[in-house]
């Protein structure tokens, strides 16, 4: 399964689990595309095995949370108006 | 008459190598943190600039790190000997920029090295540029750290070159802060955004050193013309592929596109010039890419911001202080010099003045904080003309002995500031609100001569004849230099 990461501005303990929400996630697949960002509607769990994708969490100043979460990507979302 | 200068970073780096201020890294380096770590370490060790010949996954590119992180390199960029003292580099800057502005010269595309390779449409893919992951924990790959952004006013011919950081988001998108008080911010938020118009931009990566210096100087003169002043002849520019903007023809990589109005994307965090990762992920301006042009075997430019000293602190301190000196002289203030300490991350400036009337320090504070330079610093130390503004020992001595805590510290609580101040609250950072302070390190003008303390130093309390005798016989006494 692919690995991703995301940044959260609140405390890790306040992470919303199992509810669909839109977030920016970064693809951690090695290669030229590493760290490519995208908006996506996702569901997250602190249980690293609950959803198919691995999601690492970083806090507001870039601090990495040591244990990964799991994530399901429901859909990719674009915030850029069409044609731009 | 043209001064000695370098038209591109290739010839400039040759000069750095010759002076012992650059090294060539032949070992392959990873764009993912390794290159950034090397650049950071050499900055912290005050070491040489690095020319990376092999970058993992990007065989068609090279990179230069820490191109202008020391005063030695600054001197070399002006064509001066690397050992030139700071006051002499400053004098050279002021001499050149007191001349008549010189308009840029537009050259044909076929003569412009930055057009050797042209990527348009889907080929203009940012992931195919060796954008470094500069620090672990950054919000993305900072593709633009040694660069400037070209933008044009909607209603006039005014063109701005400014260093606005840009983070790679995806193949076609970059994001970055465009502060409302900056020149580009005034254009974009005042004119393009209300009309919902995209603003054409061109990002110039790894420009020649004098164009880079001009782009970071807060001068009222257009940066194109200011570069001409620094060079002593017109800077050669070339038209963009997708807009009527012009860019320096000898730069390494050009990214063209549009800043999208009324759309933001979260950007950051990033290791910033204050030496901290301060600002959280914030909604920032969105740059959409339409074209990328470059030289063959293009060289990415990498500046790694962090604790002093790197380009962000050095260049900004240098040009801010000299533009401040020019402005104060224009206002008739009898300044003897202005020096901003790069170690202060351009937050603390020392102004030397002949204190010929009361509260001249307050007036200096009002003038510099009230100018367009003001948002970038918050501490002004005013010292008398007997204090060497470049000597940290003398500055600390003046601050701790002449500044009266009851009467010599003037605080302005409600001033405009940048969002990058580490000491500011999150809310104050968001709204750009800070305090400013003036430290008056001059003795009051109403004190009688007999009351003013006498500085006890070799130069001040011995007759000239004794000083000369002691200096002449110094080695004879048994001292080394």
What's the arrangement of secondary structure elements?
The complex is a heterodimer of chains A (84) and B (481).
Chain A: E1 3-7, E2 21-27, E3 37-45, E4 53-58, E5 69-77
Parallel strand pairs in A: 1-4
Antiparallel strand pairs in A: 1-2, 2-3, 3-5, 4-5
Chain B: H1 9-19, E1 22-29, H2 34-44, E2 49-55, E3 62-65, H3 71-77, H4 86-97, E4 105-106, E5 117-120, E6 141-144, E7 147-152, E8 159-162, E9 166-170, E10 173-176, H5 183-192, E11 199-205, H6 209-215, H7 223-231, E12 236-239, E13 246-248, E14 253-267, E15 282-294, E16 299-302, H8 311-330, E17 335-340, E18 348-353, H9 360-370, E19 379-384, H10 392-402, E20 409-416, H11 426-431, E21 433-441, H12 464-472, H13 474-477
Structure description:
The complex is a heterodimer of chains A (84) and B (481). With 84 residues, chain A is mainly beta. Chain A has strands spanning 3-7, 21-27, 37-45, 53-58, 69-77. A five-stranded mixed beta barrel of chain A has the order 1-2-3-5-4. In chain B, 27% of the residues lie in helices and 27% in strands. Chain B is globular. Chain B has helices at 9-19, 34-44, 71-77, 86-97, 183-192, 209-215, 223-231, 311-330, 360-370, 392-402, 426-431, 464-472, 474-477, and strands spanning 22-29, 49-55, 62-65, 105-106, 117-120, 141-144, 147-152, 159-162, 166-170, 173-176, 199-205, 236-239, 246-248, 253-267, 282-294, 299-302, 335-340, 348-353, 379-384, 409-416, 433-441. In chain B, helix 6 packs across helix 7. Chain B is built from 13 helices and 21 strands. With 481 residues, chain B is α+β, with helices and mostly antiparallel strands. In chain B, strand 9 and strand 10 form a beta hairpin. Chain B folds into two domains: 9-302, Electron Transport, Fmn-binding Protein, Chain A (Pnp Oxidase, Chain A, Roll); 331-441, UbiD C-terminal domain-like (3-Layer(aba) Sandwich). Classes of the chains: A mainly beta (84), B alpha+beta (481). The A-B interface holds A 7, 9, 24, 26, 31-38, 58, 60-64, 79-81, 84 and B 32, 57-58, 127-128, 133, 135-141, 168-171, 173, 198, 258, 260, 263, 265-266, 269, 277, 280-281, 286, 288.
